[in-house]
Every structure is written in structure tokens, then in C-alpha cells.
Amino acid sequence: MIHIIKNSIPNLFTLFNLFFGFLSVMYSAVGDYKNAAILILIGMMLDSMDGRVARMLQVQSDLGKELDSLADIVTFGVAPAMMAYYAYFSAFGVFGMAIAGLFPLFGAYRLARFNINAVKSSLKYFSGVPITAGGGILTFLTLFHGKMPSIILPIAFFVICILMVSTIKIPSLKEVPLPKYGIIITLFLGYAIYIVFKREQHRFPYFIYVAIPLYILFIGYQLVRSKRKSSVK
């Protein structure tokens, strides 16, 4: 029984990542882009944690890897594309739908290519921009779409799509003790703190106040763990 629970813990992180991606799509559909963006942020947190938790518990599995890819397509492919569609591309009707649909298509191809080359790939770099980083950047730009020239979002949209399927070497953070995609997450957290400071926190989902402290604790644990490892060496 304990072994089953232990094996299920990393998958729960991944499933919650998928669930928050679905909720983000729902918030985008009603035009609430702030909540949609925060939910994708939480998905990024969970995505950076599930693999590390699996390694900590020594319960890595092929099921977890496949589940992670499926969750990533929704949270960092479909959800950001929906944000971009409702914020910008919806003005172009069916054509806008087709354009927005390109993002999860390119992202899915990027994930499939990564999965079949994962064993051969280097720990020092990725081949093309990971869908998680691409989805995070698109989400951040969409969130501030009204405060920048409107042309930036569509240009960034197509550039990210191309970069995801490109073979450009992108530095990897796999060997860094901190969670992945720290820059993007830091930007999101900075924006969240700004909103709270402006006393507009009621516009966020309540679970962000659980997710952020837990994530900070996780970062602290990783730092302590890495220091212990270095001292043992």
C-alpha cells in the first residue's frame, strides 16, 4: 500500500498540472485572463516539481513521463493558445481559430520529438524551445497584451511556434538545483505581488495563496538538499 501511494505522488503533481490547465481554458473562455495566467503559472510550478519529486522518491516510470507530456500539451499548449485566441485572434473569426490552433500543434510535435530523443539528448541544452517555456512566455505576453503594441503578440506567437520545432540549442536547467523556468515564474510572481499590493487580490483564485508558499518551501528544500549533497562530496 505504501509503495502504491509513493508511486502515485509524482503523478498527482502532473494530474493537477493538467487540471489547472483545463481551468485556465475555462477562465480564458469568459475573458478572465488574469486568473487564466495564474493557473498556467501554477501548472509551471507543478511541472517543475513532478520530475524532481519522482527522483527524490526514486519512483520514475514510463507512465509518469507519458502523463507529463499529455499534461504539458494542455497546460502549455492549449491553454496559452486559448488565451491568445480570446485576447487577439478571435477578431479574425474562423481564421483566427486556425491560427491559434497552430500553437498546440507545434508544441505537440516538440514534445514528441523530445520524447523519442530524450535518451540521446544532452543535459546541457534542449533542441528547440520547450513547450513549457514557450507557453509561459506566450501567457505572459497575452496577460499584458493591452499595455503593449498589438503587433507584438502575433509576432511572438509565430516566433515561439517556430522556435519550438527548431533545432536551435537552448541552455538546459536540468543540472541547476533550482526549479525550471525560474525567470518566467519570477516574472509571474512579481506581477502577483504587485496585484496584491494594489489590493486587487480578490481577482485571483484562492488556491494561489496555497501554491506560492508551497513552491517557496520546495525551492528552500532543493537548496538545502543541494548543499547537503555538495558537503557530502
Topology:
Elements: H1 2-29, H2 33-57, H3 62-87, H4 93-100, H5 102-117, E1 125-127, H6 131-143, H7 152-165, E2 169-171, H8 182-197, H9 208-232
InterPro entries: CDP-alcohol_PTase-I, CDP-diaglyc--ser_O-PTrfase, CDP-OH_P_trans, CDP-OH_PTrfase_TM_dom, CDP_ALCOHOL_P_TRANSF_CS
Protein name: CDP-diacylglycerol--serine O-phosphatidyltransferase
Main location: membrane
Could you explain the architecture of this structure?
This is CDP-diacylglycerol--serine O-phosphatidyltransferase. It catalyses: a CDP-1,2-diacyl-sn-glycerol + L-serine = a 1,2-diacyl-sn-glycero-3-phospho-L-serine + CMP + H(+). The protein is globular and about 55 Å long. Helix content is 73%, strand content 3%. The protein contains nine helices and two strands; from the N terminus they run H-H-H-H-H-E-H-H-E-H-H. The chain is mostly helical and 233 residues long. It has a two-stranded antiparallel sheet. The mean pLDDT is 80. The protein has a single domain, classed as Four Helix Bundle (Hemerythrin (Met), subunit A) (Up-down Bundle), CATH 1.20.120.1760.
Structural class: mainly alpha
Overall residue-averaged pLDDT value: 80
- Reading the helices and strands in chain order gives HHHHHEHHEHH
Distance between the termini: 35 Å
The shape is globular
Helical amount: over 70%
The total count of helices amounts to 9
Number of strands: 2
Radius of gyration: 18 Å
- Describe the main β-sheet briefly: 2 strands, antiparallel
CATH-defined fold name? Four Helix Bundle (Hemerythrin (Met), subunit A)
Assigned CATH superfamily: CDP-alcohol phosphotransferase transmembrane (TM) domain
